[in-house]
Structures
1.
Amino acid sequence: MSTIDTVAVLGAGTMGHGIAQVSAAAGCAVRLYDIDEGAVAAGLARVRANLDKGIERGKVTADERDAIMANLSTTTSIAEAVDGVDLVVEAAPESIQLKESIFSEVDVAAPEEAILATNTSSLSIGQIASVVRDPSRFVGMHFFNPVHIMKLVEVVWGPETSDATRDAAVDFARRLDKEPIVVKDAPGFASSRLGIVLGMEAIRMVEQEVASAEDIDKAMELGYRHPMGPLRLTDLVGLDVRLGIAEYLHERLGSDAFEPPALLRRMVAEGKLGKKSGGGFYAW
Ligand SMILES: NC(=O)c1ccc[n+]([C@@H]2O[C@H](COP(=O)([O-])OP(=O)(O)OC[C@H]3O[C@@H](n4cnc5c(N)ncnc54)[C@H](O)[C@@H]3O)[C@@H](O)[C@H]2O)c1
């Protein structure tokens, strides 16, 4: 498989702007696509703001920032975005219909040998890949937020992903200075599947008054060296978001370990969604 020099990133939001930034920093020519001018401009401004912060912290030089910005171009035409590229990374909203429709277009407009990747955090890689003519070149590349800081990339291989495609995704993640892990296309991949079990059990422990939220978090932070306990993390991600993932995994994997506790449902119903609502397991 040839090297990856040109990358199209589809969706310039929270994840897309970050994926574009790290790809441009690795020396690729990056085309950042979104549905309107405002969205691509906002994505580009976020990249610049990240880099400016990097300069303030002494991690990036002004020359490096300028070189990275020079590697980035923007477009609101999907055909223009994927024309002649080596890799497409889709980071549009988490909807199977939307992703299927995007990849139907990409399939026609991108080069036949381009690798097609989705940044989905939960959807089936095999299902999205079913809309392209050659699913062997389709793979999941699950980045974490904020992309320019978080090291992990889950490379998710679907039932028809070729070894060459999987290996190319792993190599590309390394080139971005990330740590790739290789995971089969199974619900929750590796990260959400483990993270949700821990999160649900921690909430059950609050429900059963085993310990306070602070002390349950400290058990993991100080006892297991997790950088953040599962309850604080739930507050940051959003209780509604975690509930949605837990329900999905409970349904798909059938294990009681994923069953959302009544306390979580009650808090979501009461609008206690975590940091974004001002309160969850902690006051924010
Ligand atoms: N936010 C996270 O922490 C996180 C982490 C890992 C993976 N993900 C996944 O990444 C993907 C994007 O999430 P996000 O948080 O960046 O969302 P976001 O809402 O911040 O950004 C999505 C962007 O896609 C654009 N968009 C809408 N319709 C589009 C279309 N048809 N084609 C191209 N772009 C379109 C929107 O204008 C927006 O700019 C989702 O699949 C999500 O599950 C998110």
Note: The chain has a mean pLDDT of 97.
2.
Amino acid sequence: MRSLVEVEGLNLRIGERWILKNVNFKVYEGEIFTILGGSGSGKTTITKCIVGLYKPTSGKVRVFGKDVSALSQMELDEVRKNIGYLFQGAALFDSLRVWENVVFYHLEHYRMGESELRSLASRYLNLVGLSEEELDLYPSELSGGMKKRVGIARAIATEPRLLIYDEPTSGLDPITSRLIDELIVSLREKTGSTAIVVSHDLVSAFSISDRILMLREGEVLQIGTREEMLNSSLPFVKEFIKKGLGDFQKTGAG
Ligand SMILES: Nc1ncnc2c1ncn2[C@@H]1O[C@H](COP(=O)(O)OP(=O)(O)OP(=O)(O)O)[C@@H](O)[C@H]1O
Ligand SMILES: [Mg+2]
């Protein structure tokens, strides 16, 4: 199997603190790979290393076969063009309309007319279950779930090989969360892209992932399939899963 992302012996120190400690994993082409862990465990930081926003203190991060920290700005831009990134909290531009948010990359990089851009935006909005009616709205006029969808539409609008979703279901009700899960799975079918999902939503992780990485305080505890994680013999992993799925059962969703 071909891997799109290879992380080897990744250590990251910020100030006096070691945020990531000897992190190793690979993400294979076509899979949905979830990074699971508590708040502050380093999940977002790993994705920032993947897109070259943080440079490893030591170790290597290879994306599409290229060592991210050894690239020129132009080469890094090319790698980033092939990565769609749903930022934690969706991070839409409040002063821009929905369509401008979705085709933001095209607005910045290509000379395309407004009608062409709007129809491109519609196409991606349709893929995430929104319609032309949303094109001219501002982010403040959208619900939390719609904002996530617009963020996802923006992430897929460059037709990237790799999609990174940082907390795609946080702040959403259980039903909307499951719809976003279905969207992530269906986009993998439709676009053939590979996905890294950052989450502390156990239900989501266990319904969509091919493999799961469990992170604690910057260290990888275990990587495995859903079954392997459910049968983990590590006390922390067992407890984390039991708590997360227990909360789910209590909400009565699903
Ligand atoms: N630029 C920075 N400067 C200082 N500390 C940082 C910086 N970026 C991240 N950290 C620290 O690194 C740790 C991991 O942060 P990170 O955002 O990766 O956590 P996370 O697992 O994504 O958490 P959450 O689930 O809350 O989003 C935190 O303790 C955070 O304070
Ligand atoms: Mg985070």
Note: The chain has ten helices and ten strands.
3.
Amino acid sequence: MATKIPPDQIVIRPPVEAYSVLIPVTGGCSWNKCRFCGTYKGVYGVSQDYAIRTLEDVKKDIDKYAESNYHGFPVFLAGGNPTSAPTDYLVEIIKYVRVKLKNVPRVSCYAKALDVLRKSDEELKAIMNAGLDIVYMGLESGSNTILRIMKKGTNAESMIEAGKKILNAGIKLSLYIILGLGSHKYSEEHVKETARVLTEINPTIFRFRTLNILPGTPLWDEWKSGEFKLLSPLENITEERNIIANLGENVTSQVFNDHVSNYCTIESSNIKVDREMFIKTLDSYINDPKIQNLPRKNLIRM
Ligand code: SF4
């Protein structure tokens, strides 16, 4: 049984926030049921229940960073899903960050679609006006079959609605897609439906990561018993290629492969402009014998 720890102790963040000031706001995850995720379930030797930190504690952290001269850095409001917290609380924290820390180029946090849908358009506008620039949301897949199997707790239509709400409020949106999440059986559906949802939302950014199965997650046992199969590097790159190829003409998102789990690092500042280059580059990998023979590794720490 993993030791339980307080909400400011497991602080995860996207790779792009590696050099940001990390201020824990919520601990744990208000959902905590995704079958591929073990972040708060003891994967790192400790577990954490969902909790919203007190305003007083969060402000103390911000004061501490201000006193230590952490000005000019991006700020990441940490925790599984800060948007699950009450709007007034979030507005107060973001305003406090903006007052206490000078020249903050970006304030961001993770978001979960259902938490976003619980907020009105006015509430999201208030959060944006306080100074939240961007949220990172796990779309994972646009396939309802895969979202249901993986117990994501939301479906493609809710993702589309939440994504549009965020963008309409003036907050930038970065979506994550997990390559290989449907294994071989649902790979085609994963490609088509993910491309469909991305086309509907046209997020500011979308980012790929590759499924790796962590010990202690429900998916681990299924993988160990041979019931769930990981895609090969070649198959993952092919999924990414086909998602890009299936996007609608309207999609102008930035695209990144900025996760240690990925088999390629290519990016685009506008996929509408770079689509051909992106596909050609991925095709060159797909046709490369070295990639074709690359063995699959399963990373258990990221
Ligand atoms: S919503 Fe995010 S943090 Fe929570 S269980 Fe799912 S993947 Fe993990």
Note: Residues 29, 31-34, 37, 39, 80, 112, 138 surround iron/sulfur cluster (CB under 6 Å).
4.
Amino acid sequence: MSKRAHIIVVGNEKGGTGKSTVSMHLIVSLLGLGLSVGSIDIDARQATLTRYITNRRNRTDAAELGLLAPDHVAVPPTTHRAGDEARFSDTIIRMAQSHDAVVIDTPGSDHYLSRQAHSYADTLITPLNDSLIDLDVLALVDPATMHVTRPSHYAEMVWESKKQRAMRGEKGPFEWIVLRNRLSSLDARNKRDVERLLDELSKRIGFRVVPGLGERVIYRSLFLEGLTLLDLRQAAANIEFTMSHVAARQELRTLLEATGFLRLAAAEAVAASA
Ligand SMILES: Nc1ncnc2c1ncn2[C@@H]1O[C@H](COP(=O)(O)OP(=O)(O)O)[C@@H](O)[C@H]1O
Ligand SMILES: [Mg+2]
């Protein structure tokens, strides 16, 4: 396919790790950097990203606040696999041709559409809560030695998707980023264990670890409001902008830097002005 978009898949075989929240924040960040962004939601059951964007579009003050929204398509799976896969590839091909970036939010379970989505990723972002339970998604850890026994089912799925991607003739680099989400200052011991194991595992199965968003209650209300951290300054909404939100925006900025998306936006800007 002739594509110009950088395709970002947000995936993890586990619910509640922040995939949809991170997807939405990435989308609005990239839009804010002047990129044209497409987004796809293949999580039919929760459809969190779709609902998040709908909440945003439905705000009566959306225009007044100048809220940017992506070109969004929901591709919920039906019971007809071949039809679903065809619909998904049509969507991704169209979006890849017409946007700078495409963000795909996936369900927290193994599904053929999710596998297909993973095979299109230039960047795969896996948000992970900072706990040994969540680490289980990436690797099996021997509780006696506290060392990695072997990569898990999801890590194998990512490996398979990479092969699919190569077989389609995709030449560009693929990068897997594990994002430590909902970081809290509690439980330093657990945090150290996770850190060490992630480090051990990253070398073994090939990902990079970046810090994500801290644990903050605001994310839930942002979803209902259809807003992101980036909108709070202009939003006269009933959310008060506090120091905690300043810190949260800085986390988001760090995330954009660490994932290389700030550089991506700069490169697009150069290309557009050439
Ligand atoms: N950094 C965070 N701090 C606090 N709550 C969060 C954070 N990230 C996500 N959440 C909340 O956790 C829940 C699950 O997040 P969501 O993005 O829907 O996860 P997933 O898409 O992986 O299932 C939501 O209620 C969301 O508001
Ligand atoms: Mg979700």
Note: The first helix runs from residue 19 to 32.
